[in-house]
Write a structure and sequence with these properties.
Layout lengths: L1 E10 L2 E11 L4 E5 L6 H8 L7 E6 L2 E2 L5 H6 L1 E5 L10 H5 L1 H5 L4 H14 L4 H4 L9 H13 L5 E5 L7 H18 L2 E5 L3 H7 L2 E6 L2 E6 L1 H6 L4 H6 L5 H7 L8 E2 L8 E2 L4 H11 L3 E5 L5 E6 H5 L5
Parallel strand pairs: 3-8, 3-9, 6-7, 7-8, 12-13
Antiparallel strand pairs: 1-2, 1-4, 4-5, 9-10, 11-14, 13-14
Length: 311
């Protein structure tokens, strides 16, 4: 869907992106990570021509991006940033409707789309549609920013550290909302973050960038279990790699059907890292496991958790 072919970019003579190639397939959730100044935000902005490469080419759905009218290209790519960029004197509904209005949608279609997205993001339109950004919490503003980015049903959603300024609870809730949206709508998402745990939670593929070059692009599990070099291992947190691998696997993968355990159960969709934490906190060697409806499935044993192979 998006292909960057040997792109380079320098600012003031200092190279930021260096002969970098990358493909993003339809339906992928690609997360760009790297240290500050590594070039990840510049790379994201090249995709919608907010930054033009000095050399190389960017293709969108097989067509050269530079040959497309920039307004058309950007309307096909929703864009969400940390500061949300909401218009302060516009209501929530008007902010979400901004791009559909520019596209000339009829009012009834705009209203239906705004209501659909506000409902999807947990902001009932009857309650929030008439409010202004300053009347919302930071998390609510960020939800509106995501809704606005999705309003015209873009082919791609570009997100530049959208949740970085939020508290951990709000951030976690929005991460789950974004995962739910991506799975239900099958959107192609390219997401920039410096938070490794956020990347591991969200990505189908992680692209680690250093000094404007791709060091490794792979699944979260592969980056943890099979880092390409010491830089990748250290960046991904070598001492915590085992725990982070457990966080990528569900309790359901280690349930012993028919086994029993005393105490409050754990849900099958919880991670093995969660199970390890609960076992250690309770001082037990097994936990009862239930499904989403609370039905018993069996038990997960501490020995199976700590012996879990890398996925």
């Amino acid at each position: 869907m998006i292909e960057l072919e040997r792109v380079s970019k320098a600012f003031g003579g200092a190279p930021v992106i260096a002969d970098l190639s990358l493909k993003v397939a339809r339906g992928e959730f690609v997360v760009l990570i790297g240290a500050s100044g590594s070039g990840k935000s510049t790379l994201l902005k090249m995709m919608n021509r907010m930054v033009e490469p000095d050399s190389g080419s960017v293709l969108f759905q097989g067509e050269p991006a530079h040959a497309m009218p920039v307004e058309l290209l950007r309307r096909r790519m929703g864009y969400a940033i940390q500061s949300t960029g909401l218009f302060p004197h516009w209501t929530v509904a008007k902010n979400v409707a901004a791009v559909p209005v520019l596209l000339g949608w009829v009012p009834a279609r705009i209203e239906a789309r705004v209501n659909e997205l506000l409902d999807l993001l947990g902001l009932p339109p009857g309650v929030f549609g008439g409010r202004y950004p300053h009347e919302l919490s930071g998390g609510q503003q960020q939800r509106v920013g995501v809704a606005r980015a999705l309003a015209a049903d873009p082919d791609v959603l570009l997100m530049d550290e959208p949740f970085g300024a939020l508290d951990p609870i709000t951030r976690g809730a929005l991460q789950q909302e974004l995962l739910r949206i991506q799975r239900s709508m099958r959107k192609t998402i390219v997401f920039v973050t410096h938070d490794i745990d956020e990347a591991l939670l969200l990505a189908t593929r992680i692209v680690l960038i250093d000094h404007g070059r791709v060091v490794q692009a792979d699944t979260p599990a592969a980056l943890l279990a099979r880092p390409a070099n010491d830089f990748v291992a250290d960046f991904m947190g070598r001492p915590e790699a085992g725990l982070r691998l457990l966080a990528l696997q569900s309790v359901a993968s280690r349930v012993r059907a028919g086994a029993v355990a005393a105490g409050a159960p754990i849900h099958a969709d919880a991670s093995l890292r969660d199970a390890l934490s609960v076992c250690l906190a309770r001082g037990v060697d097994r936990l009862a496991v239930v499904d989403a409806q609370g039905g018993p499935l069996g038990a997960v044993f501490l020995a199976d958790v700590v012996a879990a192979p890398a996925p």
